[in-house]
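Hello,

Our lab assistant flagged a job as stuck in the queue for most of the afternoon. It eventually completed. Since we weren't sure the result was trustworthy after the delay, we are filing this so someone can double-check. Below is the sequence as submitted and the structure that was eventually returned. Let us know if re-running is recommended.
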Amino acid sequence: MLALWMLTAPVLAAQPLTATYPPPGYTLKWSDTFQGASLDESKWMYRTDAKADSSQRPQNVSVENGSLVIHLKRENDRGKTYTGGGIISRERFRYGYYEARAKMHGGAGWHQSVWAMAATDGTTTYPSNMRTEIDGMEFDSDSPMLGHMGLIKWVGPGQSKSLTCTPGVYQAPLTFDATADFHTYGFEWTEKNIRYFLDGKLRCVLDYPPSEGEHDAINFWLTAIGYSQPGGRKVEIDNAKLPGAMVVDHAAFYEKSNEPITLSSGDTKLTIARSPVRIGVERRGTPSAGAHPESGLLLGNPDNLEPASIEGEAFDAEGHRVLTVRTPSGKQARVTVTMTPNQVDFVVRPDQPQAVLMRLAPASPGYGLGDHAAAGRAEYDTDITGYSNDHFLTGSSFTRIGSNFAIYPKQNFAFLVWDPAAKIVRSTAAECAQGSRRVESEVRFTIFTGTPREIYRQFLESRNQYGYPVLKPKYEFFGVGWEAFGALAWDTNEKTVTENVNHYLTDGYPLAWMVVGSGFWPAEDKRFHETTSFGMYDKERYPDPRRFIANFHAKGLKFFQGLRTTFITDGPFSEEGVKKDYFIQEDGRPKVFTFGWPKSPIYFLDFLKPQAVTWYADLVRKWNAYGVDGYKEDVYGYGKYPLRDDKLDPINLALMREGNYIMGRNAYLMSASDLHRINDFNYDQNQDRGPVNSLAIAYSGFPLVYPDIVGGTFGEGHFDLKVTPKMRTYMMRNAQWASLHPSMSMGQGPWTFGDPQVEKVMLAAARLHDRLQPYIYNQAIRFYTEGYPATMTPLTLAFPEDPAVYGRENQSIRGYEWMIGDALLATPLYGNDYETTNTRDVYLPRGAWIDYDSGTRYEGPRMLRDFALPPGKTPLFVGGNGIVVEKRGAALVARVYPITQQAEMVFTHPDGISRSTIRVAVADWKNARVADSNGRAQSASWERHALEFVILPGGSYELH
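-- returned structure --
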């Protein structure tokens, strides 16, 4: 409430004002605290008229003990039997906040007022130039608990139009006895309205737009007169209470400040210019998110937005600053501002549905935007500088992972608007802007500040708080997988799937999971060819689904299946969905969609209806009953429909919370899946898209990146299947690139390419990923608990102050590098030149780095020019804390490289709960030893350039 605000104003009198309550954004313009022996007649003139039951005399006004005293007496003067008095400011005021603190006389028959109206002198209350009369408080002394706040628009003596805050004149309950103590009476006059306050609490608002010169300058009045007929009823003046007095201890006028609003929290300072609104953020005294040079908040038509200016300020019940903003054409909104040390939130509530845009000064380089960073742009580049999209929504091109989170690590800030519907997103040389094309009730904008680690932690907390939670991923999905569609296309049945998986296992591939994403539906009914069938398998292809799935469980594989929220209109479950209104509707009927896939007309699950999501989860359990462990969700080809970006989130959230494994392909800000899958990535595409897409979604808060099936989907028939040298090279490069992601999977059998080197390199890539699975999963848990994209950290986030890491993740330089945790640097040779080159310029940031294969040591920062990376060379360096955990048979081993003498790692085991702490405090690596937390020596040996020892869940280990 406004009562929470106390403004420290310049002292213009001999003593400070007491109990002042100006709204935020006002500064003291004029005041009197009534010091000295007499009234300051340079500020005041006397009221001297004879009106009602009293004559007003200057002699009845005195200054005593720091207060104005208006004496009320029984005496004859100018035909009246009582005398009162009052004072009128010599200076005239207009828009602002007026206030006086007074204690009223308690004997009946006296009318006392804190008010304002134009005055020529004090001889009359009906001057010829009267227009506006604002009655901040009118009080009749026979009713000590009642008062009146109102407005009179005068057009001449006796001609007026009144507005009142109460149904009856002088009948507003005060909730206090105005005669018992001092109370503060205030009113704020703006171009829009009059706002009345009692002791700083807003009690009433009267609309008062300017017209016909009514908003003229006015004088401030403090008066007390005899008046025996308040409200039209006879009230005798109580002579027993005379003489009496109305006492005022201060009067003040506050003017709207042109100074910007400044708020601080921790190391973050927010500055908001008022007209027009311009928003800037500093971090530790250095500009971070700069203010746009023209305007920072715009409202209205999304194609013709107007800048907004602040016209009012207040505080809500939690003490947050609330701004009232207006555009030149009158569009309005309320903006609630909240701050923490690394975050500023703006919740904008427009007065009617309209677009809202917030913009900052241009910043570069920037990263993020999910799939959009790699879609529809002239060149593949993770840097989003130059990006502009006023209809930002997934569905077009290959955009399915939706995130408008944009981070600017050089400037130490990130920015987004939280809106799953159509958005405006620009990161250009002119502006850094985000907005919603239509806000029905409210929308939230957030500016994060700090280091990348601080920003992503705040982003995580906000996602969880604002309804976009990050769920805990499960270990098995981070191993090596197998996908039926990549291996067999549509030719899936119990025999072909079993033979293909067994071939991989026989060849030594450490498969942990598998997906049968096509062909399991009943083949005799063509309707099922393009939709999920909820427990309905083809009886000839899959005669015994339970036995079929149990066979793979026995081999240690998790079994997953394809899943869509599309229902063919004449399918077996559609009738129930229509009857229960579980599908998205249009004009009161289920809307019929035609997607790119399935091609049959379909209904789409109404994901905003909890009962529809529950129904869908119940249908999914029909597959769980066969032993299915999880699902590859898959909806695409919907770009011509403005479906919200969160169309799959509620379903994935429900299924994940039931313990299902989920491969996410569609999402908005929420991480309700174990993996974040980039869109189909095939041999016939530009190979620079893959690494740019992977890194972009990692930047965007989706770092559990699954880069699609190794090799893509050859069997789908979109390109020539003839095996060529280029195709063989592609399979090796693609496998090595994929192996350094959080998850990878196999498809087209390596044995089909007729080349022992291809088979060797692909198998080595799969085994490398399997060996690193525990280490990678630990980074996934860090993402879940800290928000930081530890599974795939672009170098601009890991080393934001190093200028050499910028400008490399693009199709020109192809410096596609990232950190995996704090120790591994991935440097795969990948991009559209994969066939023609065997070297790359590899950048090593500051610190020591050891080649994963050779053990060669390098000191960074350093660019390794034309570094040899032939197929089969592991594209990894070890640096940072030098601690990696790998599989060794059935055991887990810590591998500590001689990188640094002091380091620590907290490792989360595959159960997702147990932890081990590994500390390095080594003075001499040649004589390094390992002990547990009790000081007992642990067996350790040097293996592949690292000191290696077994770790157990819950154990702590120290190298010394």
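-- support follow-up --
The delay was a queue issue, not a problem with the job. The result is valid. Residues 1-14 have pLDDT under 50 and may be disordered. The chain is about 15% helix and 35% strand.
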